[in-house]
Write a structure and sequence with these properties.
By secondary structure, the chain is of the alpha/beta class. The chain has 3 helices and 4 strands. 31% of the residues lie in helices and 24% in strands.
Length: 91
């Protein structure tokens, strides 16, 4: 099994222990991404990933662009999408 992980620099290792435990190979891309252009530009090379994890800190699309890209991605691929987002609560 293979996981593609689009990660912010702060969360680069977040899936390492789970991937090791499950025997999943991980390809990590860190930095900032426009997911919509990533899907359009790299669509041929994403067929062999069973999972695609997306760190919301790394995504620079607008909310609408991100949703459009997710819909386009799911129409082209069978990969499961994992969205990682941190939640902060101020009380």
């Amino acid at each position: 099994m293979m996981l593609l992980y689009l990660s912010s620099n702060q969360n680069i290792g977040i899936f390492d222990s789970v991937a090791k435990e499950q025997g999943i190979l991980v390809k990590k891309l860190s930095g900032e991404f426009h997911f919509k252009s990533f899907v359009i530009r790299d669509m041929r090379s994403l067929n062999h990933y069973e999972y695609v994890a997306i760190d919301l800190k790394a995504i620079k699309d607008t909310e609408e662009e991100f949703i459009e890209a997710l819909i386009a991605f799911k129409s082209m691929y069978d990969s499961r999408i994992i969205i990682y987002g941190e939640v902060f609560m101020v009380i």
